[in-house]
TrEMBL record:
Name this polypeptide is given: Multisubunit sodium/proton antiporter, MrpD subunit
Transmembrane segments: 6-25, 37-62, 82-102, 114-132, 166-190, 210-235, 247-271, 283-301, 313-333, 371-391, 411-432, 477-500
Residues forming coiled coils: none
Topology within the bilayer: Multi-pass membrane protein
Domain NADH:quinone oxidoreductase/Mrp antiporter transmembrane, first and last residues per copy: 131-425
Entry-linked Pfam families: Proton_antipo_M
Cross-referenced InterPro entries: CPA3_Na-H_Antiporter_D, ND/Mrp_TM
Annotated compartments: Cell membrane; Membrane
UniProt superkingdom: Bacteria
Gene Ontology CC, one term: plasma membrane
Length: 511
C-alpha cells in the first residue's frame, strides 16, 4: 500500500510517465488512449489515498527540494487541496474517456499532442492542489498555463491563434505582473510563503494591516484563472479549443485552480478572522457580486452555445470568490462546496455541447429546435446540469448557494443575497431555455425530419402534431461520461453533508 506521503509526488510524476507512454504510442491510437485511461485511473487511486488520509486527520507532506533557503518546492495535503485533487483527478478520467469519443467522432488532428498536453496539465493541477506554499503554487500555476496553451490553439487556424494569444497574454500578464509581486511582498512581511492555519499574515498583523487591501487586490486579480472581471477575457476567447479542452478548462483544472487558489490564499495566507476584523475584503465582495450579474447578463445574449457557457462560468466562478471575500465561515464553506458542485454541473453542460457538435454539427442555441427528440439522453443530462447550476434541490449546486446566502447574512452583506437570487433567475433564463427549445419547439426548414409518421407530442393541441424523430446520439464514449457527471450532480447533493464535515477544518480558526 502506498503511503499518503509518497502519493503526493507520485500524483505529479505518474502523469509524466503517461506523457511519455502516449508519445511512444503515437502510431498505435488504441494503445495510446489505453495509456491515457490507465494513467487517469492510477492518478485517481493516488488522489483517493491522499483524500482518505486527510479525512482521518493526517496532513501528509513531502519536500521535493529547496530552491534557495526558505523557498522549497514542497507539498502538503489539507482538506481543501485533497478535495480539489480528488475532483480534478476523477473528472480527468471522465474527460479522458469523453475525449476519445469526441476526438475520433469529430476527426480532430494531432491527437497524440492533445493527450500529451492533457497529461502535463493534470500533473500541474495536482501540483497546485497539494502545494504547501505560495512559491510551489506559483510554479505549478504557470506550468498549467503553458501546458494548456497548445490545447487552446489545437485547431491551428487564425481564430485559434488569436484565442491562444489572449489566453496566454492575460494569464501570464496577471500572474507575473500581479501575483508574483504579491508573493514577494508576502515573503517580505512574513519571512515565509508557507500556508498556515489561521493565516500566515495574521501572525504579522502590525506589518500587514496597512497594506492588506492592496495586497488582497494583487492576489484577487493576479490569480487570473479565477476570471474575476475585468481579467476574464481569456476564458471566452479560449472557447476556440475542442470541447474536451473547454470541459477541462471550465471544470477539471484551469478555472478551478484559479478559484481554489483564491480560497486557499484567503484561508491560509490572510486568515478569515483577520480579513473579517479589518474589513479589507469588503470591496471585493461587491466586485465579485458585480461579476456574477454582469457575466450572467452577457451570457443571456450569446447565441453560440459554448460562448454562453463560458460567460456562465465567469459568473459561477465569482461565487467562490464571493464566498472567500465574505470572510466568514459559512461563506468559505459555500465557496469550497461550489468548487465541487460547479465542476460536475459545468462539465456536464460542456460535454453535452460537444456531443451536439459531434452528432448534429450544431453550435448555436437557435439551431437546437427539436433536437431534444433526436438526442434525448444528451438534453436530459443538459437539463440536470443546468438545474444544478441554477441551484435547485436535489442537485449539488443548491448547497453552495444556501451557504453563500447564509455567509452573506452573517457578514452583514444582505445585498449579496439579492445578487445570488437574481443570478439564479438569470441562470434559469439562459440555461434552462436551451433544453426547452430542444424539447418543446419542432425543427423547421432544412433541419425538419423527413419521416411521414406523426404522433401527439407534448405540444399536441389537435392541430399541430410533432414528428417522431429518429434517435441519433453521440458515440458511447461521448455519452457515457455525460451520464456519469449528470448522475454525480445528483449524488453529490446527498453526500454534501459528508463533504461539509470533511471541509470543516477550514473554518476552525474562522469566525
Amino acid at each position: 500500500m502506498i503511503s499518503p506521503e509518497l502519493a503526493l509526488p507520485l500524483s505529479l510524476a505518474f502523469p509524466l510517465v503517461g506523457f511519455v507512454a502516449i508519445w511512444l504510442l503515437d502510431k498505435r491510437p488504441n494503445w495510446r488512449e489505453a495509456a491515457t485511461l490507465a494513467t487517469a485511473v492510477v492518478l485517481l487511486a493516488l488522489a483517493i489515498v491522499v483524500f482518505q488520509a486527510v479525512g482521518a486527520g493526517a496532513r501528509p507532506a513531502y519536500v521535493l527540494f529547496e530552491v534557495v533557503s526558505g523557498l522549497p518546492i514542497a507539498f502538503e495535503a489539507e482538506p481543501l487541496g485533497a478535495m480539489f485533487g480528488l475532483v480534478a483527478s476523477g473528472l480527468w478520467l471522465v474527460n479522458s474517456l469523453y475525449s476519445i469519443g469526441y476526438m475520433r467522432g469529430h476527426g480532430e488532428k494531432h491527437q497524440t499532442r492533445f493527450y500529451m498536453c492533457f497529461a502535463i496539465a493534470i500533473a500541474a493541477a495536482m501540483g497546485v492542489a497539494y502545494a504547501a506554499n505560495l512559491f510551489t503554487l506559483f510554479i505549478f500555476y504557470e506550468v498549467l498555463t503553458l501546458s494548456t496553451y497548445p490545447l487552446v490553439t489545437h485547431k491551428g487556424d487564425a481564430k485559434a491563434r488569436h484565442g491562444g494569444r489572449v489566453y496566454l497574454g492575460v494569464l501570464m500578464a496577471t500572474s507575473i505582473g500581479l501575483l508574483l509581486p504579491a508573493i514577494a511582498w508576502t515573503y517580505a512581511i512574513a519571512g515565509s510563503t508557507d500556508f498556515a492555519p489561521g493565516g500566515l499574515l495574521s501572525a504579522h498583523a502590525e506589518a500587514a494591516r496597512p497594506v492588506l487591501g492592496l495586497l488582497l487586490a494583487l492576489y484577487a486579480f493576479g490569480v487570473g484563472k479565477a476570471a474575476l472581471m475585468p481579467v476574464h477575457p481569456w476564458l471566452p476567447n479560449a472557447m476556440v479549443a475542442p470541447t474536451p479542452v473547454s470541459a477541462f478548462l471550465h471544470a477539471v483544472a484551469v478555472v478551478k485552480a484559479g478559484v481554489f487558489s483564491i480560497l486557499k490564499i484567503v484561508v491560509y495566507v490572510f486568515g478569515v478572522d483577520f480579513l473579517h476584523e479589518t474589513g479589507a475584503s469588503a470591496p471585493f465582495v461587491w466586485i465579485a457580486g458585480g461579476s456574477i450579474l454582469l457575466a450572467s447578463a452577457i451570457a443571456m445574449h450569446k447565441d453560440n452555445l459554448k460562448a454562453r457557457l463560458a460567460y456562465s462560468t465567469v459568473s459561477q466562478l465569482s461565487y467562490v470568490t464571493l464566498g472567500a471575500m465574505l470572510a466568514v465561515s459559512a461563506g468559505v464553506m459555500g465557496g469550497a462546496l461550489q468548487i465541487a458542485a460547479h465542476a460536475l454541473g459545468k462539465m456536464t453542460l460542456f460535454m453535452c455541447a460537444g456531443a451536439i457538435m459531434v452528432a448534429a454539427h450544431k453550435e448555436k442555441v437557435s439551431e437546437l429546435r427539436g433536437l431534444g427528440r433526436t438526442m434525448p439522453i444528451t438534453f436530459v443530462c443538459f437539463f440536470i446540469g443546468a438545474v444544478s447550476i441554477v441551484g435547485v434541490p436535489p442537485l449539488a449546486g443548491s448547497w453552495p448557494k444556501f451557504f453563500l446566502m447564509l455567509g452573506a447574512a452573517d457578514a452583514g452583506q444582505i445585498a449579496m443575497i439579492g445578487v445570488l437570487m437574481l443570478s439564479s433567475l438569470l441562470n434559469v433564463v439562459y440555461l434552462l431555455s436551451i433544453p426547452a427549445v430542444a424539447f418543446l419547439k419542432p425543427a423547421k426548414g432544412a433541419d425538419a425530419p423527413l419521416e411521414k409518421e406523426w404522433y401527439a407530442g407534448p405540444l399536441y393541441d389537435g392541430r399541430n402534431a410533432l414528428p417522431r424523430d429518429p434517435v441519433k446520439e453521440a458515440p458511447p464514449f461521448c455519452l457515457i461520461p455525460i451520464i456519469l457527471t449528470a448522475t454525480g450532480a445528483i449524488v453529490l447533493f446527498f453526500f454534501s453533508g459528508a463533504l461539509y464535515d470533511y471541509l470543516l477544518p477550514l473554518t476552525e480558526t474562522g469566525r
